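Input record (Table S2, row 276):
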Amino acid sequence: MKSIIELLYLLRNELASSGIQSSNVEAELILSHFLNMKRFELYLSPRLEVTSEQEKMVYDVLEKRCTHYPLQYLLGSVEFYDTVIEVNPSVLIPRPETELLVEKVLSDNSHSELKVLDIGTGSGAIAIALKKKRPLWQLTATDISESALVTARHNAELNKCGIEFLLSDIWENIDAKFDVIISNPPYITESDYAALSPELHYEPKQALTSAEDGLYFYRIILADCQNYLPSDGRLYLETGSEQARAVKDMASQIRPANIAIFPDLNNFDRIIRITF
Ligand code: GLN
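Output record (glutamine complex):
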């Protein structure tokens, strides 16, 4: 039987030798998950022995993680803006950058009752995070993937959020207007896709890649967004780190004066807000 600290070292070394970068953090995340402890608690009882069942579950996950299968799918959930979101290979793993998008929408919009649309909701992360902070908002969330919607609905239930989910290819099944529309669409080109780290190849390709120059979905969203926004509506888009300028140029053909770009924590342009 191994102690917590022995297992931590073992995990860290195995992960590191498989080329996993944050091997220390991941070792802590795996152990704390299966021991049902907070990360810091591992260090409060380092000599505690784990049970053989726990040890087995840890080794199973370690083996899969060493193949670069995403840790989040193995542990089954991520924390996203004060919510817990379950994830599986039918949905994109929500990213910390997207929390900034949620933050921006919340800080700009304090009205208690707004109609809000999240296009391409995936796991439901954005819509759920917003609904939790603004319970009176009326949230609609769409996706083109039936299996993503199953996961998103499940996450909404787990987080006790009433959200309307719709199967829709961008605007296809939308026939209402919204005060705020948000989207973090796929934006990776086919040619960049091949060079992504192995972890990303386990995520749904449809949620990552975009036709043309990676800007296809921005074009489609921008082309028709005015039909779905009132005259004071707001559109928020997350973009790839080198796409914000190009999306801004596209948007400026719709509404030149009211476009703002916001950076992420690494100072990459990441979020575009268009105010109509
Ligand atoms: N809206 C979801 C997210 O931001 C999914 C985005 C996507 O699948 N492109 O996590």
